[in-house]
Prior knowledge:
The complex is a heterodimer of chains A (394) and B (232).
Chain A: H1 2-9, H2 16-48, E1 58-64, H3 78-85, E2 90-98, E3 102-107, E4 115-118, E5 121-122, E6 144-149, H4 150-164, H5 171-175, E7 179-185, E8 188-200, H6 210-220, E9 230-235, H7 241-249, E10 252-253, H8 260-300, H9 302-311, H10 315-354, H11 365-392
Parallel strand pairs in A: 6-8
Antiparallel strand pairs in A: 1-9, 1-10, 2-5, 2-9, 3-4, 3-7, 7-8
Chain B: E1 20-27, H1 31-36, E2 45-48, E3 53-57, H2 64-71, E4 78-84, E5 87-88, H3 94-103, E6 105-108, H4 120-129, H5 138-147, H6 162-174, E7 180-184, H7 192-209, E8 212-217, E9 228-231
Parallel strand pairs in B: 3-8, 3-9, 6-7, 7-8
Antiparallel strand pairs in B: 1-2, 1-4, 4-5
Helix pairs in contact in B: 4-6
Amino acid sequence: MLDQLLKKLIRTGTGRSRNTMALAGLFIAMLLMLSAVQVQSNYQQILYSKTSEDSIADFLVINKIITNKNVGEATLSAAEINDLKQQPFVERIGTLTPSNFRVGVQSVSKQIPFYSDFFFESVPDEFLDVNTPDWQWNATSTFIPMIIPNMFLDMYNFGFAQSQHLPQLSQDLIKNLPVQINIQTPAGVVNYYGKVVGFSDRISSVLVPQPFMDWANNKFGTGTANQPSRVIIQTNNASATALAGYLSKHGLSTTTEKTRFEKYRGIINAVVATSWVTGGLMLLFALLVFTLFIQLAIASAREEIALLITLGAAPKQLQQFLRKQFLPANIITVMIALVIVFILQLILQKALALQHIFVNAWLSYYTLAAAVIIMLLLMFVNNSAIKKYIRQNT
Amino acid sequence: MDGKGTDPIMHSEQIEYMQLELKNIIPTPLKYRFLQRNSDVWNKALQFNNGEYVKIKAPSGTGKTTFVHIIYKLRKDYEGNVFYDNKNIALIKADELALLRQQNISIIFQDLRLFPNLTAKENIELNRVLQQPLYESNVIDAMAEQLGIASVLNQKASLCSYGEQQRIAIIRALMQPFNWLLMDEPFSHLDKNNIDKASALIESECKKRNAGFILTDLEDDDHFNYTKFLNL
């Protein structure tokens, strides 16, 4: 009842179109800022998550440059690996464990007969860009899962198959094609079944699960364990000059093409920074306009407010009333922006999933936290404006 | 939200007594002029006890309204002190002052001070709901009926005659709890018949609250059984 009467006395609805425009401004500001936070957090997720198949984080496989001098002994010593680990640009490091036994692979299918000598390497799972439940092995497994480079398949399909008049093979077909793996041991040849479960763009090697490699090296290995000749690192900045300098100084080499992701990163950073700045400026203006509205509403009801106070209205009552007039629109605007960012995120998630890039369909906690912080900021600015101008009028 | 039933007597904890004490008050701008006159009020020590009916008589221009405004804390340009229950009103803060005006002191201004854009009823209603309501809304209708302004309740206050506005202001003042009712020439635009009705209503409302009042006027009158009579 009091609110209804106060509403008649203190008109806050003056300049409805201006008010709508200010709210629209707040809405766009919110959209930009919340999207910026969400994009940033999506980017972090893609960069560091272990579930993404096509992580665009910079994983570099590093090995020694083979020269005429070090042929046959291009392995990395423990000291060299440890030194690499200490470098600021290295976030994680994993060694590629080579197999210490001789392997041959042979087809079990009569339609596509082949035999080849082969090799295996293994790498800790968190460095893989393939995410499949088939990627596991224990002593009771019926087959050995393998990951082969996409490049192999390309070479076969577009080079070898065509020149030899052989059929081209799809990824799915290869995954359904079991092979026989022959491991040479001092006691003779042992047979296993193997299956390709994934294709990697990141590591150009034939990979088997680490547990199998450890077990097989132990069981079939000949002689001393080989020192690794390749390591994989995750770096926060593949184009860092420090990285390039370090590699050349130590006679190491890596795939240079990896730097292409730097371009994406630059674009994302620019987009995020632009929406931050634009959103921040718009928020600032929106806050300014809201403060002016409050000032205007209070100033235009100056006499009424004075009489209300004279009759015994407490400044607190008036402040509470004004808060109820101004805040809900702000909060609803922030909420709508949040919902829209959420919808955009859903669409983005679906679109990226088609390209095997996985981000969370839900908004990140950072986005929600940003919305809460901005909402608190709005409340604070509104409240202090209301307090200030009511006090000036009492 | 509409109060505690129709029982016109306030909840017992609200029946409290409040002493009003004036210690040598005198408005600063009129200090020398007023000091030359012999006044019962200016620059005197006075004590009004709860339930007293105080009449202050004064000719025009001797500071009636100034006096009322000083003890309602609308003016600060005075010397001396005003105490409600030993509390100096010069020292209380805005929110405490609001509480005092909501619970302890009600007022009828000489210039009425209604909101012109609200209806008569809304003007009264506003003072009813400014605090935890003392009366139900229908008490407004009953009082309006009693004072003969029931027909203008839904009319904008600015469209009511001055006499009607005066009665609206009286009912508005009676809608809230109080220990002291301040009245500044409350009947200036009412005829004898209406003054009798209004004073009867005011007296009965004061009795219900065990409250006192201070009334200022130009002339002597017998509207109430005054317990104290002062010349300004």
